[in-house]
Each structure stands twice: as structure tokens, then as C-alpha cells.
Amino acid sequence: MEFTAQQIADYIGGTVDGNAQAKVHTFSKIEEGVEGALTFFYDPKFEPYIYQTRASVVLVPSSFQPAQPVQPALVRVDDPRMAIGRLLALYESMKPKRTGIDPLAYVAPTAKLGKDVYLAPFAAVGDGAEIGDGTALHPHATVGANAKVGRDCILYANATVYHDCIVGDRCILHAGSVVGADGFGFAPTEEGYEKIPQIGIAVLEDDVELGANACVDRATMGATIIHKDVKIDNLVQIGHNVEVQSHTVLCAQVGIAGSSKIGEWCTFTGQVGVAGHITVADHTTLGAQSGLPGSVRKPGQTLLGTPPIDPKVFARSFAVYKTLPDMAIQLRQLQKELEALKLRVES
Fold first, then answer.
1. 100-303 sits in which CATH class?
2. What residues does each domain of the chain span?
3. Do 3-93 and 100-303 have matching folds?
4. How far apart are CA 250 and CA 266, in angstroms?
5. DSSP-derived pairing of the beta strands 3-4 and 23-24
6. Catalytic pick from 138, 174, 227, 240?
């Protein structure tokens, strides 16, 4: 399917410089542009590529002024990244959706399937489970007994929704992700560890996405809740009874211990660790590998380190930290000189 530069501009609210009838049928990075491709640039460091690319149409910021002639048609928009995201979503939505139940899929007699559901070979839907209209289960995806999965969801290969858990509409569970495994609950005894039954559930609200091998544990009692539009990256661990408010982003290898409450519009970058039973205020950003042992009460902060502090303070502290070995040598030398001076004074 082809689109002209003018059609693209009309869809995303942009304006065209150059050939408004230039046609595109694919996407590319600007440095790898080919004829018939749509690409974009927003960072000035990529500007040199715009004079070299063979792409037919380029999305650029509205304020962009070329320093030399350009060959592709330019579509000017306020935010090229947001615009390319809308176009990619449109492109994805136009792909034909598979429907139907493969003979090798398993559907329990008491399960309920909506319209236009797709079940791939070896997908499984348990007793009393409900699958909403237009949802797709890829090979070995499993929805347990009495679980509910909403409309237009995608469960990729080996994604698992345990019994009784709830997944809202338009959710995406990537390969190997798990909703509702037991929370990590054990009571130490003289003989070892006694398992504490995890009788609660896990809930994903609408438009949540789980990356590959991400895990959201079921609650000990009650529910672990991931609110609407939360985006969770690969290899993230959410403990039992955690609650993550809407629009929060959790990047790769984040771990959140049980019963913590995370606010709205937070961003936890890679390998952030959060202790249990704490609260994090709205609009909190935690830098990579930060460790959070206690609550963050003030909203809107950006923090880094363990325990997290202001990034500028962290940078100054780390500059000192790097010099500690030399400072230790100097301190020992000063101590020796001070002792020698004391002996001289006393004598």
C-alpha cells in the first residue's frame, strides 16, 4: 500500500515542502533510507543524513531550515517522533488479523470466546476462562481457569495468565511474560521454609504492555494491580500486592518488592530496585541502577543512586568517591606526620 507525502501530512497535521505527490510504501532509518521509504529526524546530530538519504519522504521539525538542498519531500510537524509513532501504529493496524481456532489449540468446554478470536496451535484456554473479541493467543499462550482477557489483546508465544487473573482491553503480553504466578511468600520455621498460600489475583487494566519474560505476581490476598497504560519492559519483576498507577514506565530488569505503591507517570530506568511496603510519589524518575530503600513523598523528583539523591549531588559525590583511594593514602600520611610532630613537641 502506498501513500503520498500530502496524504501523510493530512493525517498527522503537517505541511509539505517539495513534491507533495512523492510516494512511500515502507519505513527506514534516515541513515538507511531507500527510494519509496518514509523516515524522520528530530535530533540535530542526524541532520547530515537528510542531505544524503535516498528516502522519498522525511518528517522534520516545523522549525527545521535546511543548510543545503534536499532531495526528499519534507513533511513538517511539531514532533516528528510522535508523528512517526502514529504512522507506525496506522501501518500496523492495516495488517490483516488472523482469526479462527487452530485444531491443535485447546479450549475448555466451559470457556467463553468472543468474536474474531485467534488461537494458534497449542494455545490453551482453561475452564471458565473468558477471551474478549479480537484477542489473539499465539503458540503455547495459556489463559488459566476463570481468568479473563479483554478485547483486542495479544498474548505472544508462551505468555501465561494464571487462574482467576484479569487482563483488560488492548493489552500486549510478550513472549514468556507471566501474570499471576505466586508471590514470593515463605515463613521460616525450624524445619525450613513454609509456603504461604497466595490466594489473591493479579490485574492488568486497559492498554498495559508487558515485555518478554516480565512477571506480575498474584497477591497474597486481594490484588496486585497494574493500572491503565502502564508500560513494562523485558525482565521486570513486580512483587505481590504491588500497585502501579497509570502511565508509569518500568524499564528492563526493574524489580519492585511486595506491597509497594508506585504513583502515576513515574519512570524507572534500567535495573532500578524498589524495597517492599513503600510509596513512590507521582512523576518520580529513578536513574539506572538506583536502589530505593524508603518512600519518596515529594512528587516530580528525578533521583539517582542508592539511596537515590539529586543527580547533581550524586555526580559531585561520585567525583569524590573516585578519589577516595588517593585521599586514604594522603590521610594516612598526614596521620604519620601529625604523630611525628606531636613527638617533637612533647620532647
1. mainly beta
2. 3-93, 100-303, 311-346
3. no
4. 8
5. antiparallel
6. 240
Q: What is the DSSP letter of 45?
A: G
277 classed as catalytic: no
Residue 275 · residue 257 · CB < 8 Å: yes
Q: How many CB atoms lie within 10 A of CB 80?
A: 23
Contact by Cβ (8 Å): 287, 303: yes
pLDDT at 346: 81
- For cell 516528528, what's the residue? 80
**Which pLDDT tens digit goes with each residue over 33-69?**
999 999 999 988 999 999 999 999 999 999 999 999 9
Which residue type is seen at 32?
A: E
- Backbone dihedral angles phi then psi of residue 317, each to the nearest 5 degrees: -65, -40
Fold classification of 3-93 (topology level): 3.40.1390
- The predicted-structure confidence for 311-342, as pLDDT tens digits, reads as follows 999 989 888 888 999 999 999 999 999 998 88
What single DSSP character describes residue 152? T
Record the pTM.
0.88
